């Protein structure tokens, strides 16, 4: 084959004309289909009956083995003959020099790669490529530089445009999503997002949330936030949490639906600030940590902590100044509460459906109070988040009660959640809600004590109590509660009768 460009070769192929009846020793042009000589070398024999000298048709395997080369004497084989569909023919052209009319120089430095392509195929699949090659400002160059695109991601994009095949994995999905968005290939974008959704977990929720916000994928971002809400502790402890950007951190800390104690949020934020100082090449000092946190620091809800949690953590961290520390200690100890400059809105606006475990089928009167807590021991078979108790009120008529709520881890005696609040009753034997400031995480197969110290008139109480209560959830699951007597200083509540008729929770 005479040397020349691929376009010259194509033109010469198109200009070839076969003269009927041609014979003799005249050699066919070198860029025609394989000659008798090549066919015989591949195991074919010419049909010479009746003195005719017909060229045999090579087998498909033989055709596939003859390649187009840029060397003199190379041949363009009849590759089309073995591709029976349009998809097969286009797929064959993927990342192939045959008929290519544009080359992309993708990536930078040692990672750079030259990738051949076909303007027509790209223009059919992408409005961006269509404008690039056919628009008013269309490029005339046969080479296009793409330094901001990863070669592997660009090949995934081309593979999709040529064959509808999706080839993405954990290592390439984000770069492929970026490339699909850059060239407005919505179908591939959707495949990438679906892949991310199916692989979303607590270990990568923060990382994917950052990417979803970067690539403006609100549906994926919402799923990530839902995962973080339901599994806040695990998500904050994941390795990728300290790698998120500040805007993502702010967005999460502003949520009312995080299912974790505020002291643990503070510890996680502290870890993030240390990593951010290192990224900015700043010494890790309390002053620098508060500086890099910016408004995220003000999103920490210190008033939701217990005084013990505050004293052991934030008060000793160096991030708060003396005035802030004094104001917060006053908030924990005096009434009315001073303005401390930090939100005290409970993070208990839970997602999903609120559920209730009711342990008494009947009520009686009357139940008195003398400063001792009513207590009941319980376990559950899966993790839940308790947000409050249902309590009986006065049988004398409408009354307001003051109540101190607690949930205590039985083995360690640690108070997992507490709140002093009030509730009003109307004189009926219904239960009335008394809520915690924030959800209390209850681990499966672990014993806890639900405690309520009421101050007020005598009330109704429950009888014929259930030792085992099964609650149907909205997702088809069931949560099983087991109740037993809580020994110690108890106002008389037991499995059979007493107070705390209901536990209000989310899963």
UniProtKB/TrEMBL annotation:
<feature type="domain" description="BTB">
    <location>
        <begin position="100"/>
        <end position="170"/>
    </location>
</feature>
<dbReference type="GO" id="GO:0000932">
    <property type="term" value="C:P-body"/>
</dbReference>
<dbReference type="GO" id="GO:0022008">
    <property type="term" value="P:neurogenesis"/>
</dbReference>
<dbReference type="Pfam" id="PF07707">
    <property type="entry name" value="BACK"/>
</dbReference>
<dbReference type="InterPro" id="IPR038648">
    <property type="entry name" value="PHR_sf"/>
</dbReference>
<dbReference type="Pfam" id="PF08005">
    <property type="entry name" value="PHR"/>
</dbReference>
<dbReference type="InterPro" id="IPR000210">
    <property type="entry name" value="BTB/POZ_dom"/>
</dbReference>
<dbReference type="InterPro" id="IPR012983">
    <property type="entry name" value="PHR"/>
</dbReference>
<keyword id="KW-0963">Cytoplasm</keyword>
<protein>
    <recommendedName>
        <fullName>BTB domain-containing protein</fullName>
    </recommendedName>
</protein>
<dbReference type="InterPro" id="IPR011705">
    <property type="entry name" value="BACK"/>
</dbReference>
<dbReference type="InterPro" id="IPR011333">
    <property type="entry name" value="SKP1/BTB/POZ_sf"/>
</dbReference>
<dbReference type="GO" id="GO:0005829">
    <property type="term" value="C:cytosol"/>
</dbReference>
<dbReference type="Pfam" id="PF00651">
    <property type="entry name" value="BTB"/>
</dbReference>
């Amino acid at each position: 084959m005479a040397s020349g460009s691929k376009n010259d070769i194509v033109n010469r192929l198109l200009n070839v004309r076969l003269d009927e009846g041609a014979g003799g020793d005249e050699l066919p042009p070198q860029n025609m289909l394989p000659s008798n000589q090549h066919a015989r070398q591949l195991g074919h024999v010419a049909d010479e009956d009746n003195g005719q000298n017909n060229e045999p048709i090579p087998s498909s395997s033989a055709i596939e083995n003859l390649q187009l080369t840029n060397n003199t004497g190379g041949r363009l084989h009849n590759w089309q003959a073995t591709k029976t569909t349009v998809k097969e023919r286009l797929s064959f052209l993927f990342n192939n020099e045959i008929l290519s009319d544009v080359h992309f120089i993708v990536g930078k430095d040692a990672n750079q790669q030259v990738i051949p392509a076909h303007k027509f195929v790209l223009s059919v699949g992408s409005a961006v490529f269509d404008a690039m090659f056919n628009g008013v400002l269309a490029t005339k160059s046969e080479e296009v530089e793409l330094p901001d695109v990863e070669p592997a991601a660009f090949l995934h994009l081309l593979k999709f445009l040529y064959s509808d095949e999706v080839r993405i994995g954990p290592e390439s999905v984000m770069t492929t999503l970026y490339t699909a968005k850059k060239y407005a290939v919505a179908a591939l974008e959707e495949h990438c997002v679906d892949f991310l959704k199916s692989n979303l977990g607590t270990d990568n929720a923060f990382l994917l949330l950052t990417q979803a916000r970067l690539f403006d994928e609100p549906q994926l971002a919402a799923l990530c936030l839902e995962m973080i809400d339901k599994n806040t502790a695990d998500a904050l402890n994941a390795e990728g949490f300290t790698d998120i950007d500040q805007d993502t951190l702010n967005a999460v800390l502003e949520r009312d639906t995080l299912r974790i104690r505020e002291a643990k949020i503070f510890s996680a934020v502290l870890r993030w600030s240390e990593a951010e100082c290192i990224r900015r090449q700043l010494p890790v000092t309390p002053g620098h940590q508060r500086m890099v946190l910016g408004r995220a620091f003000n999103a920490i809800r210190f008033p939701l902590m217990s005084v013990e949690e505050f004293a052991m953590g934030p008060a000793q961290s160096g991030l708060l100044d003396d005035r802030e520390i004094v104001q917060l200690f006053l908030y924990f100890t005096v009434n009315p509460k001073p303005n401390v400059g930090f939100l005290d809105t409970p993070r208990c606006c839970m997602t999903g459906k609120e559920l209730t475990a009711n342990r008494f089928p009947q009520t009686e009167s009357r139940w008195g109070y003398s400063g001792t807590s009513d207590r009941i021991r319980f376990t559950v078979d899966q993790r839940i988040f308790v947000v409050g108790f249902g309590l009986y009120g006065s049988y004398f008529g409408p009354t307001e009660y003051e109540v101190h709520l607690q949930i205590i881890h039985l083995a360690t005696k640690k108070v997992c959640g507490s709140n002093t609040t009030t509730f009003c009753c109307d004189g009926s034997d219904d239960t009335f809600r008394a809520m915690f400031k924030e959800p209390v995480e209850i681990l499966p197969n672990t014993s806890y004590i639900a405690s309520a110290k009421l101050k007020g008139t005598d009330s109704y109480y429950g009888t014929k109590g259930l030792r085992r209560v099964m609650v149907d959830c909205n997702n088809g699951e069931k949560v099983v509660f087991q109740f037993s007597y809580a020994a110690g200083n108890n106002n008389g509540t037991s499995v059979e009768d007493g107070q705390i008729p209901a536990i209000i929770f989310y899963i």
